[in-house]
Predict the structure.
Amino acid sequence: MRSGGIAVQVEAGANGRASARSEQSFELHAKNHGLRQYEQLPEETKRRFKEEFLGTLSGILANRFAHKPEFGFEDPYYRAFVMQHKLPPLTLEAYLNQAGLALSPEDTRDLQAL
């Protein structure tokens, strides 16, 4: 009885690690997707995005960016703003294609049911 419980815990742990790796992979693909889109934007658009971003800041973050005249997509706060509010997100289909993954027919059916 005890060894069965351990096997379930090991399997659950392995599934959790696989899920975390999948999430990290998606986040990496999403970041790269956003970077490719951002790099293609005209400089005027990037300047406007920065002005809008700076207009949303207050307190500590406003002070941080007041003393940081040059920043871009590599800055995590600015990147999050641009990816959340300005660029189209990475779709599941695009991610699966980029990662070379395919859903099983059952998974596809389950997703379509949502």
Notes: The longest helix spans residues 2-39.
